[in-house]
Design brief:
single chain; globular; 2 domains; 4-stranded parallel sheet; alpha/beta; 3-stranded parallel sheet; 466 residues; uronate isomerase, domain 2, chain A; TIM Barrel
């Protein structure tokens, strides 16, 4: 089956208003991807990938989970099988993915990067694998070329405080036309229970250039590294909050907990939460002082299948813990002193959309245009149903026009058609509301909302000046 018989130019656009909004206002906008896991090193080196399987399957836990569900042996997922073998098993998996976004993303990527309009299945796999491998060697489908094809304005990678940011600096010095900016992600600092916590602090000492032996020196080291990030263009920070509880504690109490852990002693849940709460509030103040955006990704239950030794290999799921009170306490601890940075709240469970949307409403303040945001549908919600539910909740309980829009949260250089997928769903959803008479057919105002959500709000929110 040819894709023009299925995913044509009006894919997901079911009425005339939706088609107008997408084709006239959304389609050709540049992309501001403010959260992904791409490699600045691979961008700087302008890497050429040998085949489509390496681009698609080497890092994508979405695809790994789908392949496992279809009975594929781990050898052909994350094991030592050849890329050719892995590609063949992925091609067998794809036809099973009815209404899964992976089906749509797979074929959008084939269309946009390779001009291939066939459905991927066992019958077409060999031809598609051969043709894409040839195209990838043409000198235009390098990492930089792939980014240029999707009209990327800015992408923000995810980086640990111990990263030296060498390749971000080199890209900036070179004047690469796409802004590749680091994002400060100090998750490892907060994970007191990690077995290698002491080793991590040693690395932070080396990178920051200072001895870390108490709470004050830890916070000073983090500020030093944060300032290093800012010199390379950093516009945001990111945290993954799992099983987080807000607990107030004095600096002396937290210092005692930190030094206890540095000595190799075990820490209890309450001590971990006290340490995390104190450091998160301190970091929030630092972000506010530097006009950075704080992103909170909340609610993942990670590494569930302990019979697999691999971490971050597709064994995560939604948690169902309630955290409204703890989140409120964290945000209020900063807001009460007018030190709350611009913030995006991402929930992994659609159950929490309403809570997060109304929580964001508690902490808005002038002169910001949507200072605290309900983040886009994230991870397991990044599909037509999750995206539509997030938009409906935000529009109903917040202000849609301030929304900063979509992100890829991906490790793949082929992931940017996800922005197109989101834009089509946004315009389809908005067009349906307009044609139902729920909003006037005011093209000027509708264009402002669409352009804002798809690009302009994020650029303003993150203050990415050109």
């Amino acid at each position: 089956m040819k894709m023009q018989d299925f995913m044509d130019q009006d894919f997901l656009l079911y009425n005339d208003t939706s088609k107008l909004l997408y084709h006239e206002f959304a389609k050709d906008l540049p992309i501001f991807d403010f959260h992904n896991h791409l490699s600045a090193k691979e961008i700087y080196e302008d890497v050429t990938y040998p085949d489509l399987a390496s681009l698609w399957l080497d890092h994508d836990h979405y695809k790994w989970r789908a392949m496992r569900a279809c009975g594929v042996e781990e050898k052909y997922i994350t094991g030592d099988a050849s890329h050719h073998e892995k590609f063949a098993y992925w091609a067998k998996t794809v036809p099973q993915l009815f209404l899964n976004p992976l089906y749509h993303w797979t074929h959008l990527e084939l269309q946009r990067y390779f001009d291939i309009d066939e459905c991927l299945n066992p019958e077409t796999a060999e031809r598609i694998e051969r043709d894409t491998s040839i195209i990838l060697q043409d000198g235009e489908h390098t990492t930089r070329g792939l980014l240029r094809m999707m009209h990327i304005d800015t992408l923000c990678t995810t980086d640990d405080p111990i990263d030296d940011l060498r390749y971000h600096r080199l890209l900036k010095q070179e004047g690469f036309e796409i802004h590749v900016l680091p994002t400060f992600r100090p998750d490892q600092v907060l994970k007191l229970r990690n077995e290698n916590y002491g080793d991590y602090i040693q690395k932070l000492q080396a990178t920051s250039g200072m001895v870390i032996n108490d709470l004050d020196s830890l916070l000073t080291a983090l500020q030093r590294r944060l300032d290093d990030f800012v010199t390379v263009g950093c516009v945001g920070a990111d945290h993954s909050l799992e099983n987080f509880r807000f607990r107030s504690a004095s600096a002396d109490q937290v210092n005692t907990i930190f030094q206890k852990r540095l000595c190799g002693a075990a820490v209890q849940d309450e001590e971990v939460w006290q340490f995390q709460s104190y450091v998160l509030v301190a970091l929030g103040r630092y972000y506010h002082e530097r006009d950075l955006v704080m992103q909170l990704h909340i609610g993942a239950l990670r590494n569930n299948a302990t019979r697999y030794a691999m971490l971050d290999a597709g064994f995560d799921s939604m948690d169902d813990r309630c955290y409204a009170y703890d989140l409120s306490q964290l945000l209020n601890a900063l807001d009460s002193h007018d030190q709350l940075p611009k913030t995006i709240l991402f929930g992994i469970n659609a159950r929490d959309f309403g809570m997060l949307a109304t929580m964001a409403g508690n902490f808005q303040s002038a002169p910001y245009f949507g200072k605290v945001q309900l983040g886009a549908a994230w991870w397991f919600l990044d599909n037509q149903f999750g995206i539509t539910e997030q938009l409906t909740t935000l529009a109903s309980m917040g202000v849609l026009g301030t929304f900063v829009g979509m992100l890829t949260d991906s490790r793949s250089f082929l992931s940017f058609p996800r922005h197109e997928y989101f834009r089509r769903l946004l315009c389809g959803w908005m067009g349906e509301a307009v044609e139902k008479g729920l909003y006037p057919m005011d093209c000027e105002q509708l264009s402002r909302i669409v352009k804002g959500i798809c690009f302009e709000n994020a650029k303003r929110f993150f203050r990415r000046e050109r």
